[in-house]
Amino acid sequence: MAFRTGISRRMMIRSGFGLRSMSSWWGSVEPAAKDPILGVTEAFLADPSPDKVNVGVGAYRDDNGKPVVLECVREAERRIAGKLNMEYLPMGGSVNMVEETLKLAYGENSEFIKDKRIAAVQALSGTGACRLFADFQKRFRPDSQIYIPVPTWANHHNIWRDAQVPQRTFHYYHPETKGLDFASLMDDVKNAPNGSFFLLHACAHNPTGVDPSEEQWKEISYQFKVKGHFAFFDMAYQGFASGDPERDAKSIKIFLEDGHLIGIAQSYAKNMGLYGQRVGCLSLLCEDEKQAVAVKSQLQQIARPMYSNPPVQGALIVSTILGDPELKKLWLKEVKVMADRIIGMRTALRENLEKLGSPLSWEHITNQIGMFCYSGLTPEQVDRMTNEFHIYMTRNGRISMAGITTGNVSYLANAIHEVSKSA
């Protein structure tokens, strides 16, 4: 009987029944659209031109265009090598790493840390922290939506979309001034329904490099208080923006001083160069310790079916650096070197453009801050940059300042000057 059943199965497959059934499982799957940033890198790598320049990648490079591993990171690796087991971390991650990370965001002597009012978990870098929060928002505020600035890091939209949180937008960048559209931003904050969720970039806004001034942050905070809005800060560049972690967290300090309960996504990709380690933190300031315990337990429950436990290596590197006074001092020195190089390239690019006699104003290059510069180039001008000069960047005109070196800055400036002559 078993033999006859086996024959009948083979006959079914031969007759096409099984084949049609199996082939239909994935037959409707279409190729996904290419990521706009990763696509730039692919095109750059495929270009044989010796003059090619990549100013699309969002990772730090030295003045030779090479990736950098910080000395404090190498020393931390040496200290932990071969000394620890590979057991799972708790669902909430490394306690030491989380504690040190909270000090960076909330302050070394924060009363909120002392009072245990912060629910915090290790996350898969800033992306994972944002996604954990988006799912938390959907689960416990199912009727809410998220207000996202225009423009923003493209993946923000993907994160809240996949968490099924409805999205709205608010004004941020002003194309004509290449600066902050503060009046429209404030109007949107005032007109949003009371108790709305807003995504804010703590510093070095991606992709524009445009940040509110300290006074503007105070006005934003005040209006959030009036409207009862919730501020969720994505802080991917603390220390990397200005070279001073405390200065780069000024927006958060203002909101804390005004009595807000906030959320923060932190990442060590940029400011420690730990891109591939995917180490970050999600924290939510709560009303009291009891609430913080409850919130943390729910964040862990959300993480459980996603990835169960966060990875250990990056967390050990971070906690080793921040937990040792000498290593932390070295990190602060190295992160300032990175920030200063970026700031220096901004100055050099602007000066080169002005020396070419460009009639356009390039002040925005040095007014903006952080890894990215919103150049003001149109998609058509960007296409010319690539086709005529082999310079690769995203079509929104965003330039990664980390891709600029003393060796290519004049070539880049000349290309920008040529394509923008008729602007």
From TrEMBL:
Keyword flag Transferase: yes
Keywords, alphabetical: Aminotransferase, Pyridoxal phosphate, Transferase
CDD domains named in the record: AAT_like
- State any GO BP term from the record: amino acid metabolic process
* Protein EC: 2.6.1.1
Keyword field contains Transferase: yes
Please give the GO cellular component terms listed in this UniProt entry.
mitochondrion
Listed name of the protein: Aspartate aminotransferase
Q: Which organism encodes this protein?
A: Vitis vinifera
Q: What is the lineage of its organism?
A: Eukaryota, Viridiplantae, Streptophyta, Embryophyta, Tracheophyta
